[in-house]
Amino acid sequence: MSIWIGESTRLIVQGITGREGSFHARQMLEYGTNLVAGVTPGKGGKVFHETVPVFNTVAKAIRETGANTSVIYVPAALAAGAIYEAADAGIELIVCITEGVPVIDMTRVMPFILEKGVRLIGPNCPGLITPGSAKVGIIPGSICLPGPVGLVSRSGTLTYEVVHHLTRASIGQSTCVGIGGDPIIGTNFIDVLRAFEEDPSTEAIVMLGEIGGTDEQHAAEFVQAEVTKPVVGFVAGQTAPKGRRMGHAGAIISGSSGTAEEKMTAFEQAGITVMKRPVDVVDLVRARMARTV
Amino acid sequence: MNLHEYQARSLLKQAGIPVPDGEVASTPDQVEAIARQLGVPVVVKAQVHAGGRGKAGGVKLADDPTKAREHGEAILGMAIKGLLVEKVLVVPAAEIASESYLGLILDREQQRPVFMVSAEGGIDIEEVAASTPEKITRLAVDPRYGLLPHQAMSLAFGLYSDFKQVRAAAKIIGQLYDVFMTNGASLVEINPLVTTPSGEVLALDAKMSLDDNILDRRPDLAALRDLSAEDPSEVEARNAGLSFIKLEGNVGCVVNGAGLAMATMDLVKYYGGDPANFLDIGGSSSPEKVINALRIITRDPAVKAILFNIFGGITRTDDVANGIVVATRELQVSLPIVIRLTGTNETEAIRILDGAGMTALSDMDQAVERVVQLAQEAA
C-alpha cells in the first residue's frame, strides 16, 4: 500500500522527447514504473525506448493506453499549458517537475485544477516515489526502501538526504512526496498528511519544511487536530538571513510568519518531534514508532 | 526582482494611473535642472531598494532649484540601509488633503492576488496594520474573471465619501490590477494614494516587485534590473546559473539544491562554524558551474575553508568531481577543501578525485565537522 502512486499507476510523460523528459522516463522505466505513453506535440507515432508509444496529445494517449497519471518535464513557458491539457483530458494525478513556472500562471491553473477535481503535485518539485512499486518524478530509486514511513517535503535533495539516512538504518518508506517550494503549489503538506493518515501501510510520518510562508504552521495545527500517527519534522533555513531569496521563490521570510524558529515551535506545540540535523531522523522515528507499538 | 520607485511609477503611468510628473537624476546638476523645469517646490527622493527612506533622510523638500541641488548633493552617494544611492527622483511637491494605501500582493494561502486597501495610508501603514487591522480591507480576486467592477467600487467606497473621488479611485484600483497581472508582479503598492485640495486622486509613491520567473518571457522587464543595487558576486552567480547569497561567516559552501544548501548551513552552525554563503549549483550540473562557484567563493577573503556537499540525483557526482579537479587546478585554490559526494555515479566520482589526490567523504555530518574544524584552525 501507499498513497497516490503504485501498482495501478498508468503513467504518461509530457515532454518525453526532451532532454530531461527522456532521461527521467528511462529511469522511471528501469525502476519498474508502469510507463504507458509519452506525449510531445509533433512527435506522435514515434516510439520511445522501443516500447513506449508517443502521442501528439494527452487525450489521444489516454484513449489508446488508459493512462491515469502524468508527469510533466516541459520548459517553464509551456508548463501551465501542459497542466491544463492533462487536467482537461481526464488525468487524475498530475506531477509537474518543471522549475521556473511564473506564479501568475499558477493563479489561473489552480482554479481550473480544483474545478476538474484533479490532484496536482508541484510545480518545481521532485515528484513522488512508492519504493519497490512506482516512481513518478526524479527522486533516485536507489536510495529508497519499501517500508512504513511516509515522507513529505518541500525540497528535493534534502529529501534524498533524509531518505538515505532512513534506508541505511533499514527503515523503509511507504511513499515519499516532494511538494515543491514555489509560492503556489497544487498539493500542500496537509493534503499529504491526510493521505498518510488514511493509508494503512503508513505507520509514521516525516515532514521536511523550510523557511517562508505559513504552510508548516497550518500543517502543525492539522497534525494536532487530525493525525494519530507519530510525526517527526525538520525545518531548513535556521541560519538564513531574513528577507533573502534562497533559490526557492517561496522561501522568503515575510514579517514574523515564516522563520525556522517559529515553525519549529509550532511543530513542538503540535506534538511533532523536531530533528536538529537530518541524521536525527533515524533515532527520532525509531523512538516515536516504538512508543506507538 | 524589486523595481525602483521611478520604474514602478512609469509602469503605473503606462497603465493610465494618474502619477505626478517627475524625472530621474544622477547628478546634482540634473536635479537643479529638473527642479527649474518642473517648477518649485519639489521633492528629491532617493532611489534605493529599501523602505524607510524618509526616516533615513533620503526624501527632502526644496523651495528653490538651488536648494534642490543641495539636497541632490546630500542624497546622491549616501547609504540607506547599506545601499548606495545612485539616482534620485525629482517630483513636484503635491498639496495633500488625504493619504490612503492601496496594495496588491500574491497571497500564497488563497493562491490569488489579494488587495489590501486602507483610508489611513502614509508612512505608518505597517503600524496601522499591526494595531488596527480592521482599518485594512482585504479582497481576493479570482484571476479567471479578473477584478469585477463592483469589487473595485466597493474598495473605493471604503476610501472616499465624495463620489467623484470614489469613481477615480475605482478606476485606479482596476488599473493597478492590470499592472499586476500583465507584468507578473508579486507586489504592487501605491502609498500614499492622495487626494489634493482640488479633489484630484493621485498615486504619489509606488513600490513593485516582479516574479523572477516572468523575466524570461519579458525581456523589457528584465532590462529594468539595477545591477548596481546588488552585490557583484551575486550578479556574477546569477549569470552563471547559480543561486548565491553572501553571508558573514568563513565556511564556503557549495551544495546542490536549495533545501539541502540551507540544511548544510544550519549544520555548519550546529557544529560551531559560520557559513560564508548560500550557494545552490542547481539540479543539472556541469563542470563549468563548479568552476564558477569556486571562483566566486574564493574571491571572498573571509573564507577559510570550503565544503562541497553534493547529493547526486539529477546532478551527476562525477560531473561535480571533474569540476572540482579542474577548478582547483585552474584557480590554484590554496584553501582546504572538504568534499562530500553521494548518489548518482559516486564510484566514478571517487575515482576521479582519487586520481587528483583528493578524497571524498560520504557522510554529511562528518564532512561538516571537518570543514568547521579546518576553518577554525586557519582563522
Task: Quickly describe the structure.
The complex is a heterodimer of chains A (293) and B (379). Chain A has 293 residues and is α/β, with parallel strands linked by helices.
Topology at a glance:
The complex is a heterodimer of chains A (293) and B (379).
Chain A: E1 11-14, H1 19-31, E2 35-39, E3 47-48, E4 52-55, H2 58-65, E5 69-72, H3 76-89, E6 93-96, H4 103-116, E7 119-121, E8 127-130, E9 134-137, E10 146-153, H5 157-168, E11 173-178, H6 189-198, E12 204-210, H7 215-226, E13 231-236, H8 260-269, E14 273-274, H9 281-292
Parallel strand pairs in A: 1-2, 1-5, 2-4, 5-6, 6-7, 10-11, 10-12, 12-13, 13-14
Antiparallel strand pairs in A: 3-4, 8-9, 8-11
Helix pairs in contact in A: 3-4, 6-7, 7-8
Chain B: H1 5-14, E1 23-25, H2 28-38, E2 42-46, E3 59-62, H3 65-75, E4 79-80, E5 83-84, E6 88-92, E7 98-107, E8 112-118, H4 125-131, E9 137-140, H5 149-157, H6 163-182, E10 185-195, E11 201-203, E12 206-210, H7 219-222, H8 232-239, E13 243-246, E14 251-255, H9 258-270, E15 277-280, H10 287-298, E16 305-312, H11 317-331, E17 337-343, H12 346-355, E18 360-361, H13 364-378
Parallel strand pairs in B: 14-16, 16-17, 17-18
Antiparallel strand pairs in B: 1-6, 2-3, 2-6, 4-5, 7-8, 7-10, 8-9, 10-11, 10-12, 13-15
Helix pairs in contact in B: 2-3, 5-6, 10-11, 11-12
What tags apply to this protein structure?
heterodimer, A: 293 residues, alpha/beta, Rossmann fold, 2 domains, seven-stranded mixed β-sheet, 9 helices, 14 strands, globular, B: 379 residues, alpha+beta, Dna Ligase, domain 1, D-amino Acid Aminotransferase, Chain A, domain 1, six-stranded antiparallel β-sheet, four-stranded antiparallel β-sheet, elongated
